[in-house]
Amino acid sequence: MRRRKPLCGRAPAERFGSLCRVYAGKHDSSISSFFIIKNNRTRPYLLPTVTAVKARLDSETMPQARVPLLEVGKTLEALHPVRILTVCTGNICRSPVAERLLQAGLDQVQPGAFVVSSAGTRAMVGDPIQPLSAEIIRTYGGTPEGFAARQLTPRILRESDLVLAMTAKHRGAVMQMDASLLKRTFTIREFARMLEVLGQRDAPSAAVDLPAFWRGLPARAASARHLALAAEAADNDVVDPYRRGPELYNQMEDELAPAILGILRFAREHG
User: Fold this and answer.
1) How far is the C-alpha of 42 from the C-alpha of 121, rounded, in Å?
2) Which of residues 222 and 145 earns the better pLDDT score?
3) Cα gap 186→208, rounded to integer Å
4) 8 Å CB contact between 115 and 104
5) DSSP per-residue codes, 33-45
6) Which residues pair with residue 20 across a beta bridge?
């Protein structure tokens, strides 16, 4: 049995049986990170705190201010959600995990500001998420239900502000389909390392216009690519566990989860 380190590298502050409450990075009063220890594997579990729930209720119950008609268009444009696409092969193992966990975490940063979806380069169209991938999603606090695999198309790509591929091969497939996405497409592990570099370089601060900030983020991340190179090319990829047993699903989780958490940590600090 292998020993695992907590993904965020933080010691728990409070213990409630198998549930350990910790904060990832700087304290944020609206978002808490929780670790669940299940089957001797330590995983973070993201949940909104009372502050986040209260803020959402306040936003729903407070009377809406009247704004000039000419300002309505600008407001709607500013609130247009950032569209993130995750891509793998069959769209039933890796990219759905990234989709559901990124969506769950980003909803805590700003509900409605992000729409995360996924597709496959050779999708098992209509199939649900594979059971072991669905278990990973549930363990981290996401919901795998209501999913159907879909084929990657040029139209889906055109609607995406950021494309996160599971491997360099998938990134290449995106480029073949639409070369204009060159500066908006990364492997997910590569993108997480770039955000870590940006986070070390820039002090945490809340973005005034969150959608505009995230739409400009790919170009900023690309500028840090030379500072975030992988030791080996394989370190950019997430292994495909399809029909290869639980051990490969564990490896997929070990490669994918830290990247997802890194992206969410950056979003919390700059959201």
Assistant:
1) 32
2) 145
3) 25
4) no
5) EEEEEETTEEEEE
6) 15, 35
